[in-house]
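Course assignment 3, question 2. Fill in each field.
Student: A.L.
Task: Predict the tertiary structure for the chain below.
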Amino acid sequence: MNANPAATSRDHTVARRVALVGLGNVGRAVAKILCERNDGLLRLTHICNRNFEQKKQRWAAELSIPSDVIWTDDLHKILVSDADIVVELIGGLTPAEELVRGALNGGMSVVTANKQLIARHGPDLLALASATGCQLEYGASVAGGVPVLPALRTGLCGDRLHGIAGILNGTCNYILSRIETARIPFSEALEEAQARGYAEADASEDLDGGDARAKLSILALAGLQVRVAPEDIRARTIRPVDAVDFDYAAELGCTIRQISRADLKADTLFAEVGPSLVPTDSPFGRVQRNLNLVLTSGKYGGDMAFLGAGAGGDPTAVAVVSDLMAVAESFAAGPRPRRALQFASPEVSCDFETPWYLRLVVKDQPGIIAGLASILSTHKLNIDAVLQKPGFDKGNLPFVITLEPCRDSQLHPALQEMSALPFALRPTLALPILR
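Answer field:
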C-alpha cells in the first residue's frame, strides 16, 4: 500500500503536487517552467535546497514562485510531505539514492536527471518503482533536451534494438570540433572550453570518458534491456588527440569525434567510449560544437537518429518537465500494473573488429618502417597505408599507419611493442576507424 495518500488519488482534474529538490541551473529552469504553466496538470509545492533562505531571497520573485510554496533544506520533510512527484536534481549518489528510494517507498513517483544514479542503480530503482506502483522517469539523464530515452522506452520499444552509438559529451565534441576547424592544440581548445563554461576546471570526467560511459550504460539499459556497470565499459581519453591527427584524418576523408558505442551480439555486449575516426560526411562527422547525437539500430525499424543540445539548463529542464507531464497524465489511468522487470547481464567486451589509425611520433632514422612492419606481421596485422606529411622536424616526426580490420585484442600487444622501440618518442595513438 502506498504510504502517501495523495498517490492513491487518480482524479485527473487535480494538479499533481511537485517537490523540487535542487535549485541549480536546471532546477531554476524547471521551477520557472512549472510556475509559468497554466494547464492545471502540475503545481510546484515544495523546494528543497541547501541555504534555501538565500536561494528564496534571490530567486523567488524572478522565477515567479508562488508564496505558498514550502521551502526547506530538510530532505526528510520532502519524504513526509503530500507531494505526488519528487524531482531529484541534486546529482551524485549521496544523498540522491536515499532520497529516490525513500520517495518510491513512500508512494511518490520520481523524475531525475541524475546519470550517475541511473547508470549504477537504475535496474534496482526501476524494480522498486514497479513494486510500489510508482513511476521513475529519467529522460533528462542522457543528452539533455534530446528526447532519446523516452523514444527508446516507448517509441522504439516495439523494435528489437541491437546497436546504439552516440556523441554523448558536449564538452569533448566542442574541443574536438574546435581543434578540427581552427587547427589549434588540444590544450588551447580545452582552455577555450573552460572559458566558455563548457568544461569544468577539472574536466577529467569529460575528457577521459567517464561521463559518456555512464550515459552509454543508461542507453543500453533503456534500449538494449541489458544491465552494464559504467566501470565495465572501457573509456579511452581524448587528451592525446591533436591538430596533426585532423590533418591525417582529412587525408582519409574522416574527422575525429568521441564516440560511445554498444553492440549486442548473442550473449556479449561490445561497448566502449573513446575518440574515433568517422567519415566527414557521416552524421557523426557533421556534428559540431557541443551538440549531441544518438543513432540506434533495430532489427525491424532500421536506423534512427536523435540530434540536439545535450546540456544546459533550459534544454534539460524541458526533458524534466516532459517527464513530469508523463507521470501526471498517467494518474488518470489508474493504478500501474506491478510486474517484474527483466534485464540481461551479458558479458561485456571492448574487442571490436575495425580498421585502425595509428599515429606515431619518432626520431627519424633508417629502418623505422621495417621494424614496425615486423611487429605488425608477427601479430598478423595487415598494413593498409602509410601516410607521412612533409615539413615536420625529423627529430620529432609524426606519421600514420592505417591497418586493415582487426580485433582490439590483436592490436594491443603490438602497440606495447611498438611504443617500446628506441626511436619511438611517444606511445602510439590508436584510434578505430568507423565506417
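Instructor remarks: Residues 1-10 have pLDDT under 50 and may be disordered. The first strand starts at residue 16 and ends at 21.
Grade: pending
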